[in-house]
Design a protein that fits this description.
disordered N terminus, two-stranded antiparallel sheet
Amino acid sequence: MTAPLRGRNNKSISEAATAKWAEADLVSAHSYVDGQIWLGTIPQPTDEANALIEDIRAFVDRLNETETLNPAWRDARLREAEVYCEKLERTGYQPIGVGPNEDRHGVLLAATRSGKLTSILAQNLMNYAGSVLASDSKGELARLFANRRGHGSEHCDGLGQQVHVIDPYRVSSVSEDLYAGFNPLQDLHPDDPLLIEKAASIADMLIIRGDPKNVHFDDNARIFVKAVILFVVYEYQDLPQYKNLLTVRDLIVNGARAQMEADFAAREAATGETITDRPSAFMYLLDLMKEYQE
């Protein structure tokens, strides 16, 4: 039977679960080897500390077996022995790496400033040889480990992997050759049933929320950007070189000026007449977008 746990003020509290701290001999069955996910370490006393602990335990056994000792003196020595053993177990240890050899999903939960980066993430990013996709809003993972996972630097050897840092705002401050990009519109297609939702997600990422008092303008900006993204996906589905965010930006900044000039030039060539009544490039863009309304 498990003894009841003790809380503050030495009050007894009920046992809530069966999880307990693992002993070193049990954890050694899951010891870390190269290629696994690093979970952490468990302290194990060094051989010298273990030898001292064994001597102290032998001394404790002799104290318990000797009946002629003063009980108060013996209890004091037993408490001292317990304190010494605890210190040896804490201070004289060599870590055992822990890393289960399996491919199941895991999750890391810890409070802010509890050491997630230094104790878990850093170890894996420095040593894990598999592929890593890291969401790094602060840019610190890229800044600290891009060279280690790549070709190395004067401070560390590299793992020889290809490293691509997608950081349009350059918050990571890595070398320019590591920055990369991707085309989020590449895999968007008109027949995708989730096309509208995907376009909305991209627009939401592009529009940075400002003052809460101006949320109306932010929302309308997202709606317009989403509409332009959808237009680009439909209009350039057979012209992949134009189906990208550069085209979206050009249309938002300049309207459909190039398309309008080409269309009006073709009309003038066909009719032989000069067309003077032309809409603005932005109104022409809206007219083109209306053609895809369903």
